[in-house]
Amino acid sequence: MTVNIRFCGGCNPRYDRGAFARRLIRDYPNLTFIYNAETDTDAVILLCGCSAACARVPESFGTFGRVTVRGEEDRGRLYSFLDSLSLGSDSLI
After folding, report:
1. Cα(69)–Cα(67) distance, integer angstroms
2. How many Å from the N-terminal Cα to the C-terminal Cα in the chain?
3. At residue 23, does pLDDT exceed 50?
């Protein structure tokens, strides 16, 4: 499973999005993460720095879904999504 991590423009970040992404990659070694891809991937994570959530990708991107993260408080929801992808990728092999 390939996950596209997209960042907002960073005009008003309320948390360290880079550290958040690095922790995510460390916590899910069975998923392949790429940054800011302009092509479709299995899933998309929009790492927005604040509640404006201005990052956008085409509606067709994210075959198995997408999650918008506005801050650290969204970690649980994001990890639940990634857990479902991880389990799904095992069954696809």
Report:
1. 6
2. 10
3. yes
Q: Helices marked H in the chain — which ranges? A: 17-27, 75-92
- Give backbone dihedrals phi and psi of 16, rounded to 5 degrees, phi first: -85, 95
- With the C-alpha atoms ordered 49, 52, 64, 73, is the resulting torsion angle positive or negative? positive
Question: What is the amino acid identity at position 42?
Answer: D
Sheet containing 2-7: which strands, arranged edge to edge?
Answer: 32-35, 2-7, 43-47, 66-69
pLDDT of residue 93: 31
Q: Quote the CA–CA distance of 78 and 66 in Å, as a whole number.
A: 9
Place of tokens 């918008």: 68
Could you read off the pLDDT of 38-93 as tens digits, one per residue? 889 999 999 999 999 888 888 889 999 999 999 999 999 999 999 998 876 544 33
